[in-house]
Amino acid sequence: MSGTPILHCDLDAFYASVEQILDPSLAGRPVLVGGGVVVAASYEARAFGISAPMNVRRALERCPDAVVVSGSFGEYSDYSDRVMEILRDFTPLLEQISIDEAFLDVSGSIHLLGTPADIAREIRRRVKAETGLPISIGVASSKFLAKVASAAAKPDGLLVVDPSDEIAWLHSLPVRVIWGIGPVTERKLHDHGIQTVGELAATPVDALGRWLGPGAGHHLHALAWNRDPRPVQTTRRAKSIGAQSALGRGLTDPEELSGVLLHLADRVGTRMRKKHKVGKTFTLRVRFEDMTSATRATTFDAPLNTTAAIHRAAMTLLDDARSDHDGPLTLVGIAMSKLADEGAIQMELALDDGDVSHAGSVAADHQSEIDRQIDRARERFGRDVVGRASDLLNKDRRRVDDGFRKLAERD
Ligand SMILES: [Mg+2]
């Protein structure tokens, strides 16, 4: 046993939980995410025996009161990013394994932040306070056992497996808790009288090999003794930060498009500043009503992250893209890449030309200060407290924020 304290953090019924936050009238109600097939079900729906993947029609037979939503995937991506950012505050050794799950090695954080149990409690508190989402955490000395523990902790729970009790606890569980034991393997083990992990651990490896194949036999026997040497492997950070919007029926009005791009630039700029990143390359992607698409990119003189500069670049590239094709747009997306840490902004001298794209110019400094103030106000009072001028303009026309679906671009 390595003794490394590992946390497995897993958001509960993630998509359904986000839907319940986005629409508070769904809180406490059975929610199904999906079209023909249930992609995710809230715990209230699971109580009716509904699970993913299940036909939506069949699910509704079991629970006629369930609310079916089609899914706000941009929001899921956004919430996922926010949760992962919180987790990174506790350790840089984070391995994200899916949109709603991550392993954390907290061995280096203990002297600063307390025991692994303290850290797990604080993570659960912060994720709930800052995003509204319930997250379950398992703490153990291996990735395997931490994941088993988080599953046992659900919903909205914490399970810390004491190192001296690990084997006893693991051996008391049914064999199906082990990764890789599906219904077929489970049945085979049952046929040989093996119900619990303890019984599996007590079975000679050779016998397991004969029944399940030598590879699987060794693997399952090792896990039954909590032998899982895999370290937490830090996931690479995003190489780009982006956002996109589907525009429903096509948009052509330049002012409305400018509003949409400002909204996206604001989202991207805010995320970059929060991550203390600046970017040197900017990309705009658009899709037209006739399903053709266009991509334009530009490189700044110096890396930046101000909303105004991102918006200006977006407008320039949009003009360029529309000079070839002026049909209605059904989707716009933007991304900043060639990312660097914020300290990399070089203060250029004598660029007092009022160009927000020139880092170090008076105009750019002025924009940075505006962004900082807006970010700070939003941090204290919530995202909607400060809108950009043209967001408000567009809100009056019931455009930008109405039924707007944003999709943070992931790579
Ligand atoms: Mg989950």
Describe the secondary structure blueprint for this structure:
Layout (H helix, E strand, L loop, with lengths): L5 E6 L2 H9 L8 E3 L6 E2 L1 H4 L9 H7 L4 E3 L3 H16 L5 E5 L2 E5 L4 H4 L2 H16 L3 E6 L2 H11 L4 E3 L5 H6 L11 H9 L5 H5 L3 H8 L1 H11 L16 E11 L2 H21 L2 E12 L4 E12 L2 H18 L4 E13 L20 H20 L7 H8 L8 E5 L2
Parallel strand pairs: 2-4, 7-8
Antiparallel strand pairs: 1-6, 1-7, 2-3, 5-6, 9-12, 9-13, 10-11, 10-12
Bound molecules: magnesium ion (MG).
What does this structure look like?
Helices cover 42% and strands 21% of the residues. The chain is an alpha+beta fold. The protein has three domains: 6-160, 2-Layer Sandwich (Alpha-Beta Plaits); 163-224, DNA polymerase, domain 1 (Orthogonal Bundle), CATH 1.10.150; 241-409, DNA polymerase, Y-family, little finger domain (Dna Ligase, domain 1). The longest helix has 21 residues, at 254-274. It starts with 5 loop residues before the first strand and ends with a strand. Bound molecules: magnesium ion.
